[in-house]
Specification:
By secondary structure, this protein is an all-alpha fold. Helix content is 33%, strand content 3%. The N terminus and C terminus are likely disordered.
């Protein structure tokens, strides 16, 4: 049967088990349509929860990979539903969703510690403050450039990788990290070279429990 389409039954909900109209193909297109359908609330909830987790450090559902019965229940189910509905109504615009969240009261809370609230809610699930978070490597690099007065907000007009053409890219970082010294733009514009990441963005921040190693005197 190689190369031949197989007729399978389409269902409005793959979980229902009910047979629907016959269609020709593997069913992948129909599955994608169901996943992205406005009648399927799960997809919007998952996306909204992921964006919330990225901005707040913890999702409304603390198990973002598991919305099933073995996962944790949402801390604010009505808020999750409201954000999912508005996300779909906004044409699934992640940009509008982020704007709505960062302008919220919860996002603009300080990280000030409160003993009474901490005793009631040590995990900050009820959002009585903004949880402290580590800065990303890109933000640290940008801040260092800005402090040194070398930060260039102008986006690059071309790709250094494309200029070097396809193939071997070893010459791009010849001389250690000399290439990075020529880039004073935002870290988001840095070229991505497989296996040759920039030192400032690939070095992991050490925890206080693992101090840096020093060379022997």
């Amino acid at each position: 049967m190689d190369g031949e389409d197989i007729n399978v039954a389409a269902s409005a909900d793959p979980r229902s088990g009910e047979r629907g109209d016959e269609f020709s193909g593997s069913g992948r297109e129909e599955l994608a349509d169901w996943i992205a359908s406005s009648d399927n609330p799960l997809t919007a909830r998952v996306i909204v929860n992921r964006v919330w987790q990225h901005l707040f450090g913890r999702g409304l559902v603390a198990t973002p990979d598991n919305f099933g019965v073995s996962g944790q229940r949402p801390s604010h189910p009505e808020l999750l539903d409201h954000l999912a509905v508005t996300f779909v109504a906004d044409g699934r615009s992640v940009k509008r969703l982020i704007r709505r969240l960062v302008l919220s009261h919860s996002y603009r809370l300080s990280t000030t510690h409160d003993t009474d609230n901490f005793q009631r809610d040590p995990d900050n699930a009820w959002l009585w403050r903004m949880s402290p978070r580590r800065l990303d490597a890109e933000a640290v690099r940008d801040a260092m450039l800005a402090t040194a007065g070398k930060f260039d907000l102008t986006p690059p007009t071309e790709s250094v990788v494309a200029r070097n053409s396809e193939g071997y890219t070893g010459g791009l970082d010849r001389g250690g990290q000399m290439l990075e010294q020529r880039f004073h733009c935002r870290s988001v514009y840095l070229p991505v070279i497989r296996g040759r990441g920039f030192e400032s963005n690939t070095s992991q921040l050490r925890s206080p429990a693992s101090p840096p190693r020093y060379a022997d005197a």
